[in-house]
Specification:
binds iron/sulfur cluster, 45% helix, mainly alpha, 64 residues
C-alpha cells in the first residue's frame, strides 16, 4: 500500500500522519483499533492473521 493511501486511512481515523513514518502510522492505526502494533514483526513471512490488511506490506517491512 502506498503512503498516500496509508495517510488517507490515518486521516479517516482522525490521526494526523504529518511527520510520521509508514511504520509509525500503521502502528498508531493498529493500537487505535485495539490491536497489537505488530506491523513489521512477521519474522520470515510468518503470521497467522491471514485477514490482516497490512499483511503484504508487513512481510516486506519485516525483511529488515
Ligand atoms: S501480518 Fe498483520 S497481524 Fe501479522 S504481524 Fe504483520 S501487521 Fe501484525
Amino acid at each position: 500500500m502506498n503512503m498516500q493511501d496509508i495517510r488517507a486511512i490515518a486521516k479517516s481515523h482522525k490521526i494526523d500522519p504529518a511527520g510520521l513514518s509508514k511504520l509509525d502510522i500503521i502502528h498508531t492505526l493498529q493500537r487505535e483499533e485495539g490491536n497489537f502494533d505488530c506491523y513489521g514483526t512477521a519474522y520470515d513471512g510468518v503470521c497467522d492473521q491471514s485477514n490482516c490488511m497490512w499483511r503484504e506490506d508487513c512481510f516486506e517491512a519485516s525483511k529488515g
